[in-house]
Design brief:
By secondary structure, the protein is an alpha/beta fold. Helices cover 41% and strands 15% of the residues. The structure holds S-adenosylmethionine (SAM).
């Protein structure tokens, strides 16, 4: 294996995907695992040497995030499974990072799964998968774009069909985009959603000054991470969705963690997932 073929994102937001790969590799080793991702360790092995001693700074931050993030991976797996069972064959994952659902989940071969993430993420991800000989089990499409730009223009050429219902997955990115950028993504998603489309969004009661988030920002942005700006879709998101033709329901984080047999680790009743379905 020649590690030089996969440029490792050792800084910036793309490196958070490496962190989640570590989370998935850790979970995969557990006897009581919530999912199995055999590819996660490939990414960890390919990335670790480039971090050198900084790898040791990553570990304590991941310890803080592991319990909730690993549950979140499983919850997305469950949503994908349910959507596919109910006939959805088009899935778009925002902030797909080093996720490998197209390879590890038993999806119908005709499912079109679109992974949206930054170019530097795929510059690392694709060579690792190719070198390992990974084969997707459904139609996999990669969109190396910045969600703050016109990300949707790449979709039609890749076979996206706006007339069919879509499962939209926000996997850990919209909550961190500045509010106007996150809202623009939502507006576009809304325009591209046929009736029956689904969008599950997490509404975390994040304290941007908590120890875990300060440690993460410091790791990603360097010592002086600056003041956090208003991020994510905002508290009035449910109202917006109703006005734009979406029905919503929600579950608290505690309910969701309990549904997969893990303790509630992340916030109180304000932390919840909103499930939206297009009328
Ligand atoms: C916390 S990671 C989640 C990774 C992935 N969902 C997983 O479970 O492995 C957030 C991801 O969002 C991506 N991201 C951050 N800002 C982005 C942007 N402006 N446009 C596209 N992707 C972005 C990062 O590159 C990273 O892969």
């Amino acid at each position: 294996m020649t590690e030089a073929a996969a440029p490792v994102p050792v800084a910036g937001v793309a490196m958070t995907a490496i962190g989640i790969a570590v989370v998935r590799a850790r979970e995969t080793e557990r006897a009581d695992r919530l999912y199995s991702d055999p590819f996660a360790q490939w990414f960890v092995d390919a990335a670790k040497p480039s971090f050198a001693e900084r790898w040791d700074q990553l570990t304590p931050v991941l310890d803080l995030f592991y319990p909730a993030r690993t549950v979140a991976v499983r919850l997305v797996d469950d949503r994908v499974e349910v959507a596919v069972r109910e006939g959805i064959r088009q899935i778009v994952v925002f902030g797909a990072g080093l996720d490998t659902r197209a390879f590890r989940m038993d999806l119908p071969a005709e499912t079109r799964l679109f992974e949206v993430d930054l170019p530097e993420t795929f510059a690392f991800k694709e060579p690792v998968l190719t070198r390992g000989g990974a084969t997707p089990r459904c139609e996999r499409h990669v969109l190396p774009v910045d969600l703050r730009d016109d990300w949707a223009q790449a979709l039609p050429a890749q076979g996206f069909r706006p007339e069919e219902p879509t499962l939209w997955v926000d996997e850990g990115v919209l909550g961190y985009l500045h509010r106007p950028d996150a809202r623009r993504v939502l507006t576009t998603l809304d325009e591209l959603s046929a009736p029956g489309s689904r969008f599950d969004l997490s509404s975390f009661a994040v304290d941007p000054n908590s120890g875990a988030f300060l440690a993460l920002r410091r790791l990603v942005s360097g010592a002086d991470a600056g003041e956090p700006e208003a991020a994510g879709l905002g508290a009035d998101i449910e109202e917006w969705l109703h006005e734009h033709g979406w029905d919503t329901s929600y579950q608290t984080w505690a309910e969701q963690a309990a549904s997969v047999g893990r303790p509630d680790t992340d916030g109180g009743p304000e932390t919840r997932t909103i499930a939206a379905i297009r009328r």
